[in-house]
Write a structure and sequence with these properties.
Blueprint: H1 2-31, E1 33-38, E2 47-53, E3 63-64, H2 68-72, E4 80-90, E5 93-103, H3 105-109, E6 118-126, E7 132-141, H4 147-167, H5 170-179, H6 181-190, E8 196-208, H7 210-231
Parallel strand pairs: 1-5
Antiparallel strand pairs: 1-2, 3-4, 4-5, 5-8, 6-7, 7-8
Helix pairs in contact: 4-6
Length: 232
């Protein structure tokens, strides 16, 4: 009998603590504010989602991953996943910058065909306004490519990508990457070497912003100067 009363009292205490915990959790959610997340201006400030936060400062640096379909409304581009990073909050709007993109691996596997070749090129590029990015290009040929052709294709890809990077600032290059204009230019150059059926910028990532690039350059200059002094 005593044991039963003790167990009953313990159950009541646990039930009370559970209710208090649930109430605290509910109060925390009630205190949170929902913020509208907007794509950058070069994507027409499209609404790409909502997120809650008790403090707007907690949103800074948070990433969101909509699809290109969410931006353009084109269902055929739903396999392109974008990444945006929240950089500032104004009122109840969270403004973002482009951080990278990636094609769905399932979609890419569906492009593989027997008797053909897949040619990849991956490299860092520096935009006209000093954004350091990594770009990944994928090409699917109509026939099996020779080693010499694969080498020539990669050189052609690199030439087109780096030429565009030198000519365009970050915002311009990003729109060309995501909307397919850059891939179209690569396609036109590569098809002179071998017939191809698909050419896409399958992945991109922003590695460093202009300030970080300037710091890196300054360090390299100091290192070069120090090495020169040692030699003398």
């Amino acid at each position: 009998m005593i044991l039963w009363i003790f167990q009953y009292e313990c159950d009541i205490q646990m039930s009370s603590r559970t209710k208090q915990s649930a109430a605290r959790t509910k109060d925390k959610w009630r205190d949170k504010v929902w913020y509208q997340i907007l794509a950058p201006e070069y994507f027409d400030n499209k609404d790409i989602g909502k997120t809650p936060a008790g403090n707007p400062e907690l949103l800074i640096g948070r990433t969101v991953q909509p699809t290109l379909y969410d931006i353009t409304g084109d269902f055929e581009r739903i396999h392109v996943k974008l990444r945006f990073k929240i950089m500032e909050v104004a009122g109840q709007q969270a403004n973002t910058v482009f951080y990278g993109h990636e094609w769905s691996s399932d979609y890419l596997r569906g492009l593989v065909r027997r008797g053909t070749s897949r040619i990849d090129w991956i490299g860092p590029i520096l935009t006209k306004d000093d954004y350091l990015m990594r770009i990944s290009v994928i090409v699917f040929t109509n026939t099996r490519a020779k080693t010499s052709q694969e080498h020539a294709v990669r050189k052609a890809i690199e030439k087109v990508i780096r030429t565009h990077a030198k000519k365009h600032v970050f915002d311009e290059l990003v729109t060309k990457v995501i909307l397919g204009d850059l891939a179209a230019d690569v396609h036109d150059e590569v098809k002179k070497i071998i017939p191809i059926r698909e050419c896409e910028i399958r992945k991109s990532k922003v590695l460093k912003g202009p300030e970080e690039v300037k710091i890196r350059r300054a360090r390299l200059r100091r290192g070069t100067a120090a090495a020169a002094e040692k030699e003398t």
